[in-house]
Design a protein that fits this description.
The complex is a heterodimer of chains A (168) and B (292).
Chain A lengths: L1 H17 L14 H13 L1 H17 L7 H19 L5 H23 L5 H32 L2 H5 L7
Helix pairs in contact in A: 1-3, 2-3, 2-4, 2-5, 2-6, 3-4, 4-5, 5-6
Chain B lengths: L2 H29 L1 H41 L2 H33 L10 E13 L7 E4 L12 E3 L4 E8 L4 E5 L6 E6 L5 E6 L5 E6 L10 E4 L11 E9 L7 E7 L8 E10 L2 H8 L4
Antiparallel strand pairs in B: 1-2, 1-12, 2-5, 3-4, 3-12, 4-5, 6-7, 6-9, 7-8, 8-11, 9-10, 10-11
Classes of the chains: A mainly alpha (168), B alpha+beta (292).
């Protein structure tokens, strides 16, 4: 069951990111759907699955991005691993509890991507991009993760249906 | 020990091994990027092939929804007429700019009849099927790839002007970095004064012309065209107009902000320059001498 879920996420996330989401960009910044999905999978199903999805989706994102190297594979992989590890420290994972970690993971992943995308740029310009792109993106990612988690919990998917045992 | 308990232990062991393998793989990719590149390249082409299908499907859906919406929202006849006229204006603008360029070139070199100038470029038409996969690169995804003769570093143009350059090629798709991305730089020239410089994107998503000679007589509104110094674009393709000049006393060079002719947010189709070949004199002369 989980493998079907995993493959469908891999097949759907990046195409949605580059087509539909490219048109929905408040403040000229689009949320990173792949990072949000990776973090949610990490929070819900643990570090192995978070890391697995992060590596897969990051690899595909790198294939369709303008940059060289495998930056997204590494950052998304680490984000999935960290979210899984963070979820383990919580006695009760809630939508509110995942807001801040998603924001922080998005910012950390963004900083690495930014530095690799602008290797020769002035620090002042980098700081400006931090303010105008990275922080709004972090906020959007956190809001999206919060919204999806909240919706899943309202649909009783988090407590009853979607736990790791149902995906074995 | 019960059967379910044993299964649980095995399953948790498998998961632990899977986790260790994944962490090791990420570490290897992080620490040995060059060595793992070949392996990743081998995997990337088939994966990109598979992924091209849902991207193209979603893009077609997106296109048809927008198309239907536009037709119902506006009056159908007026909308189509407007679109046609706009296209005509764009084409005439591009043609005028190229003819102007050819005229200047022919004047300069009229004494030397054995010149080889301007471009007879070979292009491949492609449709834009996607945009930026991340916020850190300004790029578009086109529906033509290595199977259609596209390769890295090829120039990409639209009817109105220069769009960008191909940076990543998959079998049936390619990624084009736009002119507004700071990682792109092309050789440009002020059409009127013939001063050359480098046209580069900025982090704010604007376009800037750098390294212009300090004594250059650039004026606001001057047209910037490709200089043809690099092989990816032929000479004389319009890039944009000078919007703002920057001349510092202590600066060695002048620089200027450019207003690109292409509206990058509305790009739907582009041409990839597969060969920026040269025109022979016999081919060029009929184009610059008006027929009677």
């Amino acid at each position: 069951m989980y493998s079907v879920f995993y493959v469908s996420l891999l097949l759907v996330l990046v195409p949605i990111q580059v087509t539909v989401l490219a048109r929905l960009s408040p403040w000229g910044v689009q949320p990173d759907l792949c990072l949000v999905a990776t973090c949610l999978v990490g929070f819900l199903f643990g570090k192995s699955r978070g890391l697995g999805l992060g590596v897969g989706v990051g690899f595909i994102q790198d294939l369709f991005s303008g940059g060289a190297g495998m930056v997204n594979l590494i950052t998304k992989g680490i984000a999935g691993l960290c979210s899984g590890m963070f979820a383990k420290t919580l006695s009760n994972t809630t939508a509110q509890a995942i807001f801040l970690p998603t924001f922080l993971l998005s910012c950390a992943s963004g900083v690495i991507s930014l530095i690799s995308a602008r290797p020769h740029t002035d620090w002042l310009l980098l700081i400006q991009e931090l303010r105008t792109i990275l922080l709004p993106q972090g906020l959007l990612d956190a809001l999206l993760a919060f919204g999806v988690y909240w919706m899943l919990s309202k649909l009783n998917c988090v407590d009853s249906g979607i736990d790791s045992s149902s995906f074995r | 020990m019960s059967k379910s308990g044993l299964t649980g232990i095995v399953s948790s062991g498998v998961r632990r091994v899977f986790l260790v393998i994944l962490i090791a793989a990420v570490l290897v990719i992080l620490l040995l990027p060059r060595q793992t590149q070949g392996l990743l390249d081998g995997i990337s082409h088939p994966v990109a092939e598979i992924l091209a299908v849902p991207i193209q499907a979603l893009s077609s859906l997106d296109f048809s929804i927008r198309d239907t919406w536009n037709h119902y929202l506006a009056l159908q006849g007026v909308y189509e007429q407007n679109l046609q006229l706009q296209e005509e204006i764009d084409q005439l603008h591009a043609k005028m700019s190229q003819l102007q360029e050819q005229l200047i070139v022919s004047e300069q070199l009229s004494a030397l009849l054995n010149f080889q100038e301007d471009a007879l470029m070979e292009t491949v038409a492609a449709r834009v099927i996607g945009r930026n996969a991340t916020n850190w690169y300004r790029a578009i995804i086109i529906d033509k790839g290595s199977e259609d003769g596209i390769s890295n570093e090829m120039g990409v143009v639209a009817a109105t002007g220069v769009v960008g350059r191909v940076v990543n090629v998959n079998p049936s798709t390619a990624i084009v970095l736009l002119l507004t991305d700071p990682n792109i730089a092309i050789a440009g020239m002020i059409q009127r004064s013939r001063d050359e410089g480098i046209v580069q994107g900025t982090t704010q998503g604007l376009v800037r012309m750098k390294y212009l000679p300090p004594l250059s007589t650039i004026e606001m509104g001057d047209v910037v065209v490709t200089s043809g110094l690099t092989g990816d674009y032929p000479r004389g393709l319009p890039i944009g107009h000078i919007r703002q000049l920057e001349t510092g006393d202590a600066e060695l060079f002048q620089s200027a902000d450019i207003q690109p002719l292409v509206d990058f947010s509305k790009l739907e189709g582009v041409l990839v320059v597969t060969s920026s070949g040269q025109l022979q004199d016999s081919e060029l002369l009929p184009m610059i001498v008006p027929s009677r």
